[in-house]
Amino acid sequence: MQNLYFYRQMNNKVLQPRYKNSVHFKDFWTKGNGKLLIDFSGAEISFKDFEKFAPYYYHVDETADQVVKDVYLTKKFQDASREIELYIKNGISENDQIHESIKKLFLQTQQIPDWLDDALLKSGAELCMRSNLDSLISLRDYCLMGGYDYAYLNKPLIVTEALKKGAVKRLSETLDFWVNVTRYDAMEIHAKGYEFAIKTRLIHSYARLSIKKHYTKWNTEDWGEPINSWDMMATYIGFSLVFLHSLHKLGNTVSIEEEKGIFHLWKYIGYLLGIPEHLLPNDKKQATEYFYLWTSIQPPSDSDSILLAHSLLNESIENPILKFKFQRKLLRNLHISCTWFLLDDTTCRRLQIPDIPGKRIFPFFKRFFNRIYDKLISRKSRIKKGNKDQLKVLEDYLKITKNSNFH
């Protein structure tokens, strides 16, 4: 908390739930998806715990930041990456003659927390796999698109010029991470999911240090520290609570064990990513209550949000995975339909999502199909097919982005 203390000393200001009386905040929680989340989770919303969370808007992962300073900023990027990969695959011990920062990071991530339950990790992974393409629709059209409505959350994306990188590449990277952390045994120490978590943690630190060094106009008071712990909490609530709510909206049935599993899986992933453990919710009630507090410091969409949203919508047109133009246009319209169905209308209008004819048809069919499919096909078969289909989509994206002129 040292960085927060000095920040308060310099500015003599304490963060408040500054948007709690704003129309966008009230509408979301009384008429929009926020109200649906409360009904879905049984949450009891209030601001009584705001001061416990607010400091984390100015809190960052100092452990990973120091690793980046000691390794990535003192060597060629490729050499630094190879060194980190060796630590990920082979592990480290107390006696290794290496930087203390590296030792601290890996001794923490190699330590299995007392609360970790392998059976729940498995249940969470199975829900992600058996939901098949609904998982990918949820991630794209609810979690990612909905996140663009929070203007301050997106500032690191804007200042690191994510728009120039292109939505196809961004989507490919997100999909690569999500698929690899949600397979069987992915999160075992030294396994593929563990590797992705550590690398992603260091990418966040590298981006944060770059922003602080090169972007002199960063507004810490309003935007918090770049990629701060509270924003990270909100992002990973997207992968658990929002993802689960999306599957529910799309007509998927989820068992109690699977629901516990999805929160447990993302709690552990968040732990490996350096998010303070007590910020990571255990269930949908807790997640909704935490999310309520965080949304009170976020303004609605701005012009940057709209650019990001439309970049994501147009990804279907730009992406050459589908051969013919009419196929790409159809896919774009399907994603637009799902966005209108999964997000509330007010959010869609703020993000200027196009209003297309017959936008309710595909989501209605999806819900109907899912309810029948869940009853007719065994859970084991759905897991197997979902895993295969998701890996195929990832393979297609990686092929496009690794062997093409995408930035």
Layout: helices, strands, pairs:
Elements: H1 2-11, H2 23-30, H3 33-41, H4 50-53, H5 62-72, H6 77-90, H7 100-110, H8 118-130, H9 132-147, H10 155-159, H11 162-165, H12 167-181, H13 192-214, H14 220-223, H15 229-249, H16 256-272, H17 284-295, H18 303-313, H19 315-318, H20 325-342, H21 345-350, H22 361-376, H23 379-402
Helix pairs in contact: 2-3, 3-17, 5-7, 5-13, 6-13, 8-16, 8-23, 9-15, 9-20, 12-23, 15-16, 15-17
GO molecular function: oxidoreductase activity
Protein name: Rubber oxygenase
EC number: 1.13.-.-
Written overview of the protein:
- This protein has 407 residues and is mainly α.
- The chain has 23 helices and no strands.
- The protein has helices at residues 2-11, 23-30, 33-41, 50-53, 62-72, 77-90, 100-110, 118-130, 132-147, 155-159, 162-165, 167-181, 192-214, 220-223, 229-249, 256-272, 284-295, 303-313, 315-318, 325-342, 345-350, 361-376, 379-402.
- Helix 15 runs antiparallel to helix 16.
- It is globular and about 65 Å long.
- Mean pLDDT is 94; it is low at 4-12.
- Its EC number is 1.13.-.-.
- Residues 165-360 form the ER-bound oxygenase mpaB/mpaB'/Rubber oxygenase catalytic domain.
- This is Rubber oxygenase.
